[in-house]
Amino acid sequence: MMDYSTIVQIGDVYVNGDILTEYFSCDYEACKGKCCIAGDSGAPVKEEELEPLEAAYDSFSPLMSEKGRAAVAEKGFFEVDREGDLVTPVVPGTEECAYTLFEGGNCFCAIERCFLAGKCRFKKPVSCRLYPIRVVRLGEGTVGLNLHRWDICRDAFEKGRREGVRVFEFLKEPLTETYGEEFYDALSAAAARLNLL
């Protein structure tokens, strides 16, 4: 097994080795979508995502909570966190993403629910789709992909181990959509060389 300090470089992307070695598979039955309502700030949003997010707002906003809509009315479609990054707005006094949909005590993404119903074209921020991978800008066009370990996802790491699903395998679709098929194929090849597949 690779040491967590191992880095795999694919073009301008530096991938932390534990993305290839660690197991992960979301266990929604256990967590109930807590990643949408816990954390220091909202989910990271790319600048190029702001326009499609705003364009889709009227489609998915009816699914949001009243508090969520009020937060967007007050703060706008994004806010800037203490590190200077663009993030989804959070309901004041809570850790809840404003774009959260609540059903029977469970948390879902209102944007994604609308997308899946074919009512908007924006799926949700790529940072949400790539979780538990976090993207770090390294400068000069390079980025780093790191594995975020969060206690609320403990069950997901255990489920992934039971099912034999690695982090990069679980995230095949968003990784491919974000970085391309060649990138994902290179990740798979790196895992194969390490006898992980």
What class do helices, strands and sheet pairing give?
alpha+beta
Cross-sheet strand order for the largest sheet: 1-2-8-7
Q: What is the mean predicted local confidence, pLDDT?
A: 90
Largest sheet: 4 strands, mixed
Order of helical and strand elements = EEHHHHEEEEHHEEHHHH
Please give the number of β-strands: 8
How far is the N terminus from the C terminus? 12 Å
**Which runs of at least 5 residues are low in confidence (pLDDT < 50)?**
none
Percentage of residues assigned to helices: 25-40%
Inertia-based shape: globular
Strand content: 15-25%
* Count of spatially separate domains: 2
How many H/I helices?
10
Radius of gyration of CA atoms, rounded to a whole number: 17 Å
Helix-strand layout with pairing:
Layout: E1 7-10, E2 13-16, H1 18-21, H2 28-31, H3 50-60, H4 66-75, E3 79-80, E4 86-87, E5 100-103, E6 106-109, H5 110-116, H6 126-129, E7 133-139, E8 142-147, H7 154-163, H8 167-170, H9 172-179, H10 181-193
Parallel strand pairs: 2-8
Antiparallel strand pairs: 1-2, 3-4, 5-6, 7-8
Helix pairs in contact: 3-5, 9-10
Account of the protein in words:
This protein has helices at residues 18-21, 28-31, 50-60, 66-75, 110-116, 126-129, 154-163, 167-170, 172-179, 181-193; strands spanning 7-10, 13-16, 79-80, 86-87, 100-103, 106-109, 133-139, 142-147. By secondary structure, it is α+β, with helices and mostly antiparallel strands. The protein folds into two domains: 1-24 and 132-197, no CATH class; 30-123, no CATH class. A four-stranded mixed β-sheet has the order 1-2-8-7. The protein has a two-stranded antiparallel sheet with strand order 3-4. A two-stranded antiparallel ribbon has the order 5-6. Helix 9 packs across helix 10. The longest helix is centred in the C-terminal third of the chain and has 13 residues, at 181-193.
